[in-house]
Request: fold
Amino acid sequence: MTIGEALKSRRLHAGMSQTEMAAGIVSESFYSKVERGVHAIDAETLIKILSVHHFDVTGFFAQINNQSPTGPFFELTSEITFAQNRRDVKALDKIKRKIENGEVQAPLWLKFKLELAYAWALRSNDQISPEMKKKIKKLVLNENWDRTSYHFLSQAVIFLDVDDSKQLVEAAYAAYRKHPATDTFTLQFMAFITINYLNCCYHQHANKSYTESTFKFLQELPVDPAIGLEKLIGKFYQAVFSGDEQKARSLKSIIQDCGYASIIDDVEIDE
Reply:
């Protein structure tokens, strides 16, 4: 991962614009070119930008060197991720109380991550304020589509109302078709967008017309073991939205037998 890619990833997941990330330390124009790899940035300036936003500097450099990060918020970040993956709302509540009681002086990006974890664990965006939804949508719309943007959208799509989600995923599909990439990470992020968007459609009771372009796009993605599970889950959702309960139950059983029950256990099929 390049410095520019790592900066963009941190910025998006902290819910900041490029101007906010630059923080007056450098111009927005210069910062934008650093993200895109056009300009280099010296270590002192980079550390100033990371520090002003309370990002873990050691963890940042470990990320670009593909090492295991450590830092003041590494343990808490890991706890949030672990609770999110297990959909353990009680554990998230415990972390939230630590922050609210002042036991942890959490920076904005960590609070943002906690909100994201709640949305995933509850499979709902009910706890996300209209202001936060608006900010996320604005962030995505203002980005040039690349691997980092696809990654952010794949996680943020559950935050949004289904109409906004549809607008953004359609834009992502169009951008990918214009400049297709077959590296493993990009393929996975695109596949994650489709699956998470379908889950959003299911929980917000969208009709079948909202899903058709996504099923088509997922089918268009190349055959690759890296996204085999996502293609299978896509077929499961297609059966659900088509009302083919027998096929949906069969696919759900296969997915569960493979050890991925938690991905679809929130989708109910009439017996």
Remarks:
- Residues 132-264 form one domain.
- The chain has a mean pLDDT of 85.
- The chain has 16 helices and no strands.
- The radius of gyration is 19 Å.
